[in-house]
Amino acid sequence: MQELLTPQEAANLLKVHLRTVYIYLRSGELPAAKVGDNWRIRPSDLEKFIEKRMVKDTKK
Q1: Whole-model pTM?
Q2: Which of 2, 5, 15, 58 has the greatest number of beta carbons closer than 10 A?
């Protein structure tokens, strides 16, 4: 099983505010599991989340 990330760890990796991660979690844009009152994020889901938001160079 993969090591799971906390929202704070995800925020640190993304270099965004913790509130931003919670917005993505609550909206369902960032897949995660809720364990009790705590969110946990698979690193592979975070990578997919980032890949979906990559901007392609359209000037080629």
Answers
A1: 0.85
A2: 5
